[in-house]
Amino acid sequence: MSEKNARKKQISDLTCFGGSQIFTEPKSTSNLVQPDFDSFLHYSKQFFDQHRYTNNGPLVKLLEKRLAEFHNAKFCITFCSGFWGLVLAMTSLALKGKVEIIMPSLTYRRMADVAAWAGLKPRFCEVEPNSLSMTAETVEPCINNETALILAVHPIVNCCDIEGIVSLGVEHSIPVLFDSVESVYESSSIGKVGKFGNAECFSMHASKLLNGFEGGYVTTNNEELAHRLALLRGFSFEGQDNCVIPGGLNAKLNEIHAAMALANLDEIDLQIANNRKRYRWYQAGLSGISGIRLLEFDESCSTSYKNIVVEFLDDWPLKRDETVLVLNAENILARAYYYPPLHHKNMSYPHIPVSLKTTDFLSCRFMLLPCGDFVSCGDIDKIIQLLGFIYSHGFEIANCIAETAVKIS
Amino acid sequence: MTKNNDFALLGRAAAFAKPLPVGQLYFPSWDRYEAAMRGVFERRYYTNQGPLVQQLEERLQGYLGVKHAICVTNATIGLMMAAEALELSGKVLLPSFTFIASAQSLSWTGIEPVFCDVDPLTHQIDIDKLDALIDEHVTGIMGVNLWGSACDPVALEKYAQTRGLKLYFDSAHAFGCVVDKTKIANFGSIEVFSFHATKVLSATEGGCLCTNDEMLAARLRNIRSSYGAGKPVPVVKTSNGRMSEAQAAVALMSLDDFPQNQQKNETLFRLYEERLKHIPGIKLVKPAGVTFSNYQYVVCEIDKNIFGLSRDSLITVLKAENVNARRYFYPGTHRSIGYLNSLPDYNDYLPVTEHLCATCLQLPVGAMVDSNDVDVICEIIEKSYRYSQQLKSFFAGHDK
Q1: A392-398: which pairs have CB atoms within 8 A and are 24 or more residues apart?
Q2: Which partner from A312, B79, B158, B391 sits 20 to 30 angstroms from A225, CA to CA?
Q3: Cα distance from B291 to chain A (closest Cα, Å)?
Q4: Which residues pair with A312 in a beta bridge?
Q5: Can you give the three-state secondary structure of A173-196, one letter per residue?
């Protein structure tokens, strides 16, 4: 059945115009990698036997040790999510008495909210169009007397200009926090991600490279910062009830999530091999379709090959959002990368209004395609076939969308 | 003076081979854990409002008789979400005699906590003391239901209504408790439960926000981030407060076990009650304001003049025996870092809180404790009372 549905002969075969879906199961952009069940159980047994379910238990300690080693960083502190890891790293690193945080607008949709929880005021910077990442050149104009922190966000394919942004921070005496949530496995020419700037923050959400159900961690070479973060995530308690610094909350990672992350960490190279295979499949398939460009991984350094991002060029017949709509209808959960950019969102907390022309332009051109454990090479063939069909029937589809006034949600 | 060297503190072997924790620490058997996790692996659904979280929310709604139960990653983030959803500002009144997270959740939402004293018998917020603390900046009250007791939520509702204040509850201790015929979960605008491993309902870490208000529920779901649980409504800022499928799996099993775990707590509590009532100077705090309690906290007040030893000395004796008795709460939120700037405001305002912070201790109850353990613990306490003068000299010598 799926074979038949995959072959769209005429536009009425498209699900959005009444045809049947290519995929009965959704194909998402989330990684959702599952480790070996026995390995997960093996780790679980350790906390189970000790009756330690949370509060810096044996597996959290082991995971932190393993991740610090993995990233060649001195310290690793885990959290219940990357979100709260970021918030606590921000409150810890922001220069006292200053309020602005520099971050790109073309990034994670909740990033301005993260800053707001940290009591900081986002000042959005531009990104460089080829790499989709912020650079020293795009950050520098945003620096002023109120700058408390630079949030250096790695794009989801390849790294941002680590050296340039770190030097800029040093030059202006402004701390640099890396958002490396999609960069667990990445390296740049100066080494593995995880030890740069003042600290780096990662996510262990199921959609990310290292699936820990939910979770996050911060790596740093700064012992004082590591100690501070470890306190803050557990109500700032030193010992049982001795609260030693203000600003604590509960952001502890539980032991089951740590077990999952450890089991996945053991198999990370296997995962990278699978990702590489999928990426190569996309690379080969997409090269035969005009109007669409795959964002390529820089293979001169280690990379995760995880996220599949494409750019729609000027000869692509549909708007990006129309394409997303057509794909979504087929159960291909492609997503806009990123829309809307943060500076266009309604924010009722303090922020600096800006106009960002490059970001506006880029925010309408890129799309994430399905990746991860649920996506086989056969699935990728079907996705590419559909994209080819959309390209060759583009104007017909565009007219039909306009006529039927299908709403873009 | 009678002497007895039968204390671990004085060199004898500890009464317990391994430390006995105070927390509940109930957990399903290994087989059930394995089966539940196998299910999660088969579904390959790990988080983002998955099938188990949905099932847990429905079951909690049914059990608690509340319209909306919104599960979260932990109760502190839940309290922060509640303050955010209620759009509180300025100042909020709450007891100082509570876990520090109650106040920390307010600090995280830009609100100044204003501490109220508690009732000496029940340890719950003293409603008569609220008036003196109200000024034009106060926008709400956070009631706290402590120890498996309740803080008279009906009276607080009336009070908040007449003063035009918002009311919500930190009910971290109160899962399953009933006030007349109404389960805690249904009072005020929102009630927040903790499903931490030390609580009677465990998700390892976790919690749940309950409300009967549609709009608040929608706001809370958006602040948590909910992936398909209703259409997002406008909020100031979102967060990540999600509960994973692994957490929900444990909580569902814990909910199945709640009746027997509550029963075990109650049995142990009654045993403590029976044994401790004969010992002068130690007073067990009994459930108050509820018609049904989860009995998840065994909290005692030590009168050092009668008992002969201070609370802290007794804890030292117990710890040497591997009984991890705990000062609870200490030093009192108003005396904790982060709130010390306003400490002068509370001179003479919190006499009961000051007294309780100096005299209360928590004893073990829950999965790791059986009735023999309670007997042994009570024997140690009884002996400590009997030989308090000898122990006191030991401490005096030790302090030199």
Answers
A1: A393/A10, A393/A11, A394/A316, A394/A317, A394/A318, A395/A317, A396/A11, A397/A11, A397/A14, A397/A317, A397/A318, A397/A322, A397/A326, A398/A317, A398/A318, A398/A319, A398/A322
A2: B79
A3: 31
A4: A292
A5: CCCEEEECCCCCCCEECCEECCCC
Residue A219 CB contacts under 8 Å (≥ 6 apart), including other chains = A67, A68, A71, A73, A75, A76, A194, A195, A199, A200, A202
DSSP state of A335: E
Least CB-CB distance to B101: which of A32, A211, A250? A250
Chain CA centroid to CA B230, Å: 31
Minimum CA–CA partner of A84 in chain B: B240
Q: Which amino acid is at B369?
A: V
In this model, does residue B1 exceed pLDDT 60?
Answer: no
Residue in B141, B262, B251 with CA at minimum distance from that of residue B207? B251
Nearest-by-CA chain B residue for A83: B240
Torsion of CA A43, A48, A53, A54, to 10 degrees: -40
pTM for this predicted structure: 0.97
| Chain B residue whose CA is closest to A347 | B236
CB B360 within 8 A of CB B326: no
**Which token pair is B106?**
């307010």
Report the distance separating Cα B34 and Cα B141, nearest Å: 43
Around Cβ B270, how many Cβ atoms within 10 Å? 13
Predicted confidence band of residue B2 (pLDDT cuts 50, 70, 90): low
How far is CA B35 from each of CA A34, B103, B246, B249, rounded to the nearest angstrom?
A: 16, 39, 12, 10
Residue A344, H or E segment: none
| pLDDT at position B85 | 98
Out of B196, B327, B338, the one facing A246 most closely (by C-beta) is B338
Neighboring chain B residues of A32 at a CB cutoff of 8 Å: 44, 46
Is pLDDT of B43 > 70?
yes
Report ipTM (2 d.p.).
0.97
How many angstroms separate the CA atoms of A160 and A136, rounded? 10
Compute the nearest-CA separation of A52 from chain B (Å).
8
CB A11 within 8 A of CB A400: yes
CB–CB of A241 and B205 under 8 A? no
Contact B338 A257 (CB under 8 A): no
Q: Which residue of B has its CA nearest to A206?
A: B46
Beta-sheet strand order (sheet of A75-79): A75-79, A216-220, A199-203, A176-179, A147-153, A100-104, A121-125
Per-run averaged pLDDT (10 residues), chain A, 409 residues: 68 94 94 96 98 97 98 98 98 98 96 98 97 97 98 96 97 98 94 97 97 98 98 94 94 98 98 97 97 96 96 96 96 95 96 98 97 96 97 94 67
Q: How many whole angstroms separate alpha carbon A86 and alpha carbon A99?
A: 16
Provide the terminal-to-terminal Cα distance of chain A, rounded to the nearest Å: 28
Cis status, amide bond into B232, omega within 30 of 0: no
Contact yes or no for B44 and A34 at CB 8 A: yes
Q: What is the largest CA-CA distance in chain A?
A: 70
CB contact under 8 Å between B41 and A41, yes or no, is no
Q: How many residues does chain B have?
A: 400
The contacts of residue A348 (CB under 8 Å, 6+ apart) are B236
Positive or negative torsion for Cα A289, A290, A294, A298: positive
